[in-house]
């Protein structure tokens, strides 16, 4: 079994190699390669690997550009520190999507899925899945229409909440919507992944696995000595949201551009 690693951050790449070798000791690890051009050059002169583990954001673009230029016949496990990408498309296409820092148990589960598929009649058509994924990702572009009104349960009623009045969505067994004036509503949404795919990324930011924040609801943030950020909200003002060190640069850019 050959596994091609695509990762442009040296320390992350080193740790990824170690983790893959630990979880798949019999595999031949190729790479890591850190740019679109390096990967395309490699693919032109080498047989295709059995599996690819690829970061999305590379030094010279996004890895989707690789798969648009080189037809791949094997499955891909995507990794990224940023979860603003079309997560629902990844899930629907049965291609694994792991958030950094990579959890060893999640990577192990992804490898287990691969071994269950490998060589069986149940194995999906990975070429077709990848084409569908790239199409879904392309449809997330400027022409996409995002949801502008949401609903929640309040005093035995289902009430509409315009986008401008949403403070945040949070997950705690169910998905809650906090309004800008501090009300907490239960929604009928199943996951934050579903909501993230519906909301405008210029307005909403997925802070972590539990919070999707509206730009106008943020009172400010503080830098932690660990590199993480602590985000304070206007409402509810007793909630403090933590953003990981890996996602902190993207949050700062999003917050300043907003």
Automatic annotation (TrEMBL):
Gene3D superfamilies: 3.40.50.2300, LytTr DNA-binding domain. PROSITE patterns: HTH_LYTTR (PS50930), RESPONSE_REGULATORY (PS50110). Pfam families: LytTR (PF04397), Response_reg (PF00072). The lineage of its organism: Bacteria, Pseudomonadati, Bacteroidota, Cytophagia, Cytophagales. The keyword DNA-binding applies. Keywords: DNA-binding, Phosphoprotein. The modification 4-aspartylphosphate is found at residue 55. Residues 2-115 form the Response regulatory domain. It comes from the Bacteria. This is LytTR family DNA-binding domain-containing protein. The keyword Nucleus does not apply. Residues 170-257 form the HTH LytTR-type domain. GO terms for molecular function: DNA binding.
